[in-house]
């Protein structure tokens, strides 16, 4: 089975490989640097979902793989509080798209202020932690959950939801 991953991000790639490998054999993975066709920093849950769908479809167009994954992180506000949100999509070989959402968690106000000022979360978190490319490892979720949940684990949940829906559809199409 050919699995196309619409990112070069290590945390997202690991999430897809970890989960897909549990449910399927004879896998070939390939990463594709595809655009999300949304803002560099998605600012609503809808925009974040659309970014995941766009990545999955752009990956499908680039690869024609059996399963084509797109994962997207974004932020959104509820009652003046800024939350991280995360979405995933998988485009099937026939173009069908399945979506799922994952964990949401509150961001500190000092981070939210910078986001509202137009900055992107990844570079904000690098400055905040004094580390490089935090988005490919712990991510904001790892920092703000005291390491209890890292970015790979957070996205694994979404990938599991996507694979579960795919298996359900496959079973019921027969």
From TrEMBL:
Q: Which reaction does it catalyse?
A: XTP + H2O = XDP + phosphate + H(+); ITP + H2O = IDP + phosphate + H(+)
Question: Key word DNA repair present in the record?
Answer: no
Give the EC number.
3.6.1.73
Q: Does the keyword Ribosomal protein apply?
A: no
A Pfam family assignment: NTPase_I-T
Q: Per UniProt, which keywords does this protein have?
A: Hydrolase, Magnesium, Manganese, Metal-binding, Nucleotide metabolism, Nucleotide-binding
Domain (Non-canonical purine NTP phosphatase/PRRC1): residue spans on this chain: 6-161
**Gene3D superfamilies reported in the protein's UniProt record:** 3.90.950.10
Q: Which cofactor does it need?
A: Mn(2+); Mg(2+)
The leader peptide range reads none
Task: List the protein's name.
Answer: inosine/xanthosine triphosphatase
Species whose genome carries this gene: Ureibacillus galli
